[in-house]
Amino acid sequence: MAEKNITVYMVEDYPLTRTAYKKYFESVNGIDIIGTFETAEECLDRMAIKPADVIIMDIGLPWMNGLEATRIIKGKYPETKILVLTSHERRNEVHAALASGAAAYALKDTKLSEIVNVIKSINTGAGWFDPKILDLVLDIFPKPISMDLNNLYMDKLEAAGLTDKEKKVLKLMAEGKSNIEIGKLLGISPNTAKSHVGKVFTKLGVDDRVQAAVIAVKNDLL
User: Fold this and answer.
1) Alpha helices in 84-153, H assignment, sequence order
2) Cut 0.85: pTM above it
3) Closest to 44 (Cα-Cα) out of 89, 19, 20, 75
4) What is the domain partition of the chain in residue ranges?
5) Distance from C-alpha of 112 to C-alpha of 49, rounded to nearest angstrom
6) Run of H or E including 125
7) When you count CB atoms within 10 A of the terminal residue's CB, does the N or C end of the chain come out lower?
């Protein structure tokens, strides 16, 4: 029995790029590009009718951006894999894409033949990151404090001296809650929640929520 082709949607606001990719994929065995969209909203509407296996997602889109679209799609269709294909290569955008659930992050100068390989790879559950931004991916992960295999990161959390309130804030951050949501859940103002978040970052020696979330996961806070 022949294997099922991988169904693909592409969200890209530049018409020539959409056309070029569609034409190329039509000649590729094993991949069916079943829809191209200028906006994330159009893709979301189509996903409600017919989900695709893989979505190629730009970041800079009119109206809803590709990061927000990725977060929504992964929440509703966790089996769908997202390949972010963009010219954006700033640290915050890379981290936000991965935190939103993207399985791959590629820059737009990536060869089309390589994009095909990436699609086939992430469809099987693998991840892929453009070598040009690999350092930005690796710096998400905090350096271990201990070389004890059973306690690589626990010392980090214990040594940080987080208060019980700050541990709750860390847990909620790792769950993807905003400062406003954290404030409502803990009965504090958004500004107080923001202050607690800043203290957690300082004590853990991290720069953003993704790095803090890694520590939370390593310490079984979720």
Assistant:
1) 91-100, 112-123, 134-138
2) no
3) 75
4) 6-138, 154-218
5) 28
6) none
7) N
Token reading at 7: 């169904």
With tokens 């406003």, the residue in question is 180
* pLDDT of res. 155: 54
Cα(137)–Cα(98) distance, integer angstroms? 9
Of the candidate CATH numbers 3.40.1280.10, 3.30.70.270, 3.40.50.2300, 3.30.365.10, the domain formed by 6-138 belongs to 3.40.50.2300
pLDDT value for 3: 73
Which one, of 46, 36, 27, lies nearest residue 8 by Cα?
A: 36
Write out pLDDT tens, residues 118-167: 999 999 989 898 888 888 777 777 666 666 666 666 555 565 678 888 88
DSSP labels for 157-175? HHHHT--HHHHHHHHHHHT
pLDDT of residue 219 exceeding 80:
no
Architecture of domain 154-218: Orthogonal Bundle (1.10)
Phi, psi for residue 150 in degrees, rounded to 5: -90, 0
Q: How many CB atoms within 10 Å of residue 131?
A: 8
Nearest alpha-carbon partner for 157 in 215, 99, 83, 197 = 215
Round to whole Å and give the CA distance between 138 and 136.
Answer: 6
What's the DSSP call for residue 151?
Answer: -
* Calpha distance 164→173 (Å, rounded): 14
Mean pLDDT calculated for residue range 43-54 = 96
Structure tokens at 75: 């929440």
